[in-house]
Design goal:
About 10% of the residues lie in helices and about 50% in strands. By secondary structure, the chain is mainly beta. It has one domain (about 15-240): Beta Barrel (Acetoacetate decarboxylase-like), CATH 2.40.400.10. Strands 1-3-5-6-11-12-14 form a seven-stranded mixed barrel. The protein has a four-stranded antiparallel sheet with strand order 8-9-10-13, with no helix packed on it.
């Protein structure tokens, strides 16, 4: 479960993260190593290092408790890798996309996060038996898409499962322009998942993430996690180093 027992009185960011597709790929450590912030190391699942394509909804977004008009509900698309610092398990990002230029600029300017702005779309279709999410991204001269369908009822995977490894992380890490480690804590209840019955990933890895990722194009994910999501709170924890 991603939570803190000593919760600060006020979060910097609150939102609901919903309908998260996590398409998980084993990736050689030498490709991931250049993205590591100082002071963290790659985390592993069953001996392998991974990156996940993630598409999800940012809903009811508030900064310091204040809702920003026109910036409350939007999709995000990111590529993240799994890291740890001591017993702090978390993620850091290769690149993150949102549809608003202002949001991307603020994230880059204040936190040096690798955000980009692009035309994006999201669609959620839900029935009594299934949940389907589609996320699209227009970048590098083409439209990229990820889609997943999950069945109901939802389940909560055990702590030894692959789903738990990929979805439950309490920490995010980055680095300042001067090379210092940035930490932030993410607080949310444990996420239920929909068992995935279908998934389609149609992207150009090199166009989105650079030529070193070209060999990933056309690869099927090693696993897919489809998390329902929940309200989240994000607490900056300062810099180190």
């Amino acid at each position: 479960m991603a939570h803190s027992t000593d919760e600060p009185p006020r979060a910097f960011l609150t939102a609901r993260w919903a309908n998260l597709i996590l398409a998980n790929y084993s990736v050689p450590a030498e490709i991931l190593q250049p993205y590591l912030p100082p002071g963290v190391e790659l985390d592993r699942w069953q001996g392998n290092t991974y990156a996940s394509l993630v598409g999800f909804q940012f809903l009811d977004t508030r900064v310091l408790g204040i809702p920003w008009p026109t910036f409350r509900n939007f999709p995000e698309w990111n590529l993240r890798i799994y890291v740890k610092r001591g017993d702090q398990r978390g993620v850091c990002f290769v690149r993150e996309f949102v549809p608003q230029r202002f949001v991307a600029w603020v994230a880059r300017a204040i936190y040096n996060e690798p955000y980009r702005a692009a035309r994006m779309g999201m669609a959620i279709d839900e029935t009594s038996e299934n949940l389907r999410a589609t996320y699209t991204l227009r970048y590098g001269g083409r439209t990229h898409a990820m889609r997943a369908t999950g069945s109901k009822p939802t389940t909560i995977p055990g702590p030894d499962s692959a789903e738990y490894f990929f979805k439950e992380h309490s920490w995010g890490f980055g680095q300042t322009r001067r090379g210092k480690l940035i930490r932030y804590e993410v607080n949310h209840p444990e996420w239920a998942v929909c068992p995935v019955t279908d998934c389609e990933i149609d992207i150009d890895w090199a166009a989105l993430y650079g030529p070193e990722w070209a060999t990933m194009t056309g690869r099927e994910p090693d696993s897919v996690t489809f998390a329902v999501g929940s309200p989240v709170k994000v607490y900056p924890k300062g810099t180190l180093g």
